[in-house]
């Protein structure tokens, strides 16, 4: 029984290490965030809640468009009108 538990702990530990190896950018970002919090104390005023609310609302709208397949129909319409890579690229540039 104890051997099974040790094996499971070893698997969890190795999978955690593999996750850290795959996500090296995340590890570096978290490390730098922790180190920078010692240099200057974080304040709640640093967070711009208006931008966070705006981004959340944008995510909700895009999720609704995805559910209704609005973006798919726009893409199909664009591909029907544009025949070459250049015209598709220009259309995407002018849309944005």
How large is the radius of gyration? 23 Å
The major beta sheet can be summarized as:
none
Broad structural category: mainly alpha
* General shape: extended
Counting DSSP E segments of at least 2 residues, the number of strands comes to 0
Beta percentage is under 5%
Average of pLDDT: 88
Individual helix count: 5
Count the domains. Answer: 2
The helix content is over 70%
Order of helices and strands: HHHHH
Distance from first to last alpha carbon = 61 Å
Would you write up a description of this structure?
There is one protein chain. With 96 residues, the chain is an all-alpha fold. The chain folds into 2 domains: 1-43; 47-96, no CATH class. Helices cover 83% and strands 0% of the residues. The protein contains 5 helices and no strands. The radius of gyration is 23 Å and the shape is extended. The termini are far apart. The mean pLDDT is 88.
Provide a concise account of the structure shown.
By secondary structure, this protein is mainly α. 83% of the residues lie in helices and 0% in strands. The chain has 5 helices and no strands.
List keywords for this structure.
2 domains, 83% helix, 96 residues, mainly alpha
